[in-house]
Amino acid sequence: MSEARIIPLHVDDEGHPQWRSGGQTNGHTNGHTNGHANGHTNGHARPAGADAGTDPGPAPEPATEATPPAWEEALTESLAFLRRRFSGDYAVDDFGFDADLTDNLLLPALRPLYQKWFRVETIGMRNVPDSGGALVVSNHSGTLPLDALMTAVALHDDHPAQRHLRMLGADFMFRLPVAGSLARKQGSTLACTPDAERLMSTGELVGVWPEGFKGVGKPFRDRYKLQRFGRGGFVSAALRTGVPIIPCSIVGAEETYPKIGDLKPLARLFGAPYFPVTPLFPLLGPLGLIPLPSKWYIEFGEPIYTDSIGAAEADDPMTVFNLTDQVRETIQHTLYRLLSQRRNAFLG
Amino acid sequence: MTPSVVLVTGVSRFLGGHLAARLAANPAIERVLAVDTVPPPRDLLRRMGRAEFVRADIRNPLIAKVISTASVDTVVHASLSANPGSSGGRTAMKEMNVIGTMQLLAACQKAPSVRRMVLKSTTAVYGSSSRDPAIFDESMTPKDLPSGGYAKDAAEIEGYLRGFARRRPDVSVTVLRFSNFIGPRIDTVFTRYFALPVVPTVLGYDARVQLLHEEDALAVLERAASEEIPGVFNVAADGVLLLSQAIRRAGRIPVPVPSAAVGPVSRVFRGARLVDFSPEQMRLLNFGRVVDNGRLRRQFGFSPRWTTVQAFDDYVRGRALRPVIGPQQVESLERRLLGAARSLR
């Protein structure tokens, strides 16, 4: 079984801290030869949970060796964080981005989902610049925009410069009570030209999902088929600010909540763009909100440099359409390639 | 070019009154006419020194006589009111704001001596909604036109002023869109709001708040009155505070109120004369509003001396707000917890 894994696929994935498929192979050989640990037998029975079983195993051991300083440091840090929160002693940028909250609360909350549940592997992180503005353009899928959140975690945790992704979101999100304000604090802003250009010209890494609701809410049978890419507003914004466009392809998000139906009247009642029916939701109620543990790959493609094209071309619809198509084709082809290399949606 | 005769409206309130005082202190200015329907408080009147208080209603055509007989060359219209409570109800406020401005502009149009017009407007004209960009510049217009209240008044007044500028191209027109004022001395809805021991907020929303220190506001008004800088300018401090952050910095306790209950709660506060919150100000608490002050820096040549955070802290210090939960208490609790944890080791 371990020989059958297609490991060479991700050879170009440089600087990745954890080689998760390698860890899994170890777990299996151990299980075969010794068969002593519970975690390994579990991993054998349910391969999907194998990572979740084996990964935390070795992790606490170094922690216990250095226990007193480690937990005390953690406690000091979290108390300092709480003190800052209680006295309002932190900085927020004009868009409402709260780096203190994002780094200390929101990203750590997403990390288990990123590392253990979806076992995200990033490819081509070197294509994302260490500094300066850039526009990450990605496919959108999965009923709930988990792909956007995972991309943000990837760019912070797996990028050497620990970049914060400033996402451009739909106005619907900002209308929502809790999600809207959290999205702002996490660094999102409304997907509109003034905001996008302002962020990119101040050297921020901006993320955009041009398919919008058409992409994130598409039925499961249309999985990995890119939808229309809006009106190319993201391309003209990049042209005007002269930042590179980085195509980003996400595989795995489609399987988190396979949308097999849409309850239109309920959607209209809540003012939402769709009310999804997945195999587990609303059948299992809140339990149905747990995403399926699909295996994710996030690949950042070669940047498309726009500074050589010139800002004047931003008003030329033909240039904008051609560039939009180029980005779209790149993402679609990368998706097909990643899919053809993937064995199983849950095992990778 | 320094003006020789300045007319300032709305002098019974902080900005108008102090502006008149500052202008009166400038020996280059010949006369300062301070107009309002009610006389300013005595200490403010004393500060105004040689400024002449004219008790007049700008809704009355008599204002035209004041302007023409004194041959006023600069008019600073600073009487726009945001609080229906202090101006005798919403109807009276609207009449004072809109009809008063129309009369004033009509009088100015007829007066050949008028050379400069300065309007104290508000960033509320941009509205506040989930569909708006995060940062407004002067060229943007709101997605939804303000449906009522102060914001609508201000938008209408700016419209009338544009009409005036077309009919009198020889007059230099300056529109200053101020964000919410804060400071140790000024009395606004915001200063009262943050002085409450428990501060009601909208559940699930955390607005971005951009403020302007009262001294910066006065300096901008004074500069606009004494120099010819036509145009529309956002006047706001740098930086942003989140509403929850501001409440904690003031040591207050936020009490989130569900959106549905916001209306009744704000009515209670209005009835109790604690804070006079109008519906559009409640919307501001949902989404907040941030403007770009780049044009103020570049074209107007003014950089606010206080950032939003500094202005807010100055307000908290200046008002000597006794925090319900002070930073010292939080810090001592942190130290005690850490000490307890260390002793466990």
From TrEMBL, chain B:
<protein>
    <submittedName>
        <fullName>NAD-dependent epimerase/dehydratase family protein</fullName>
    </submittedName>
</protein>
<feature type="domain" description="NAD-dependent epimerase/dehydratase">
    <location>
        <begin position="6"/>
        <end position="235"/>
    </location>
</feature>
<dbReference type="InterPro" id="IPR001509">
    <property type="entry name" value="Epimerase_deHydtase"/>
</dbReference>
<dbReference type="InterPro" id="IPR036291">
    <property type="entry name" value="NAD(P)-bd_dom_sf"/>
</dbReference>
<dbReference type="Pfam" id="PF01370">
    <property type="entry name" value="Epimerase"/>
</dbReference>
<dbReference type="InterPro" id="IPR050177">
    <property type="entry name" value="Lipid_A_modif_metabolic_enz"/>
</dbReference>
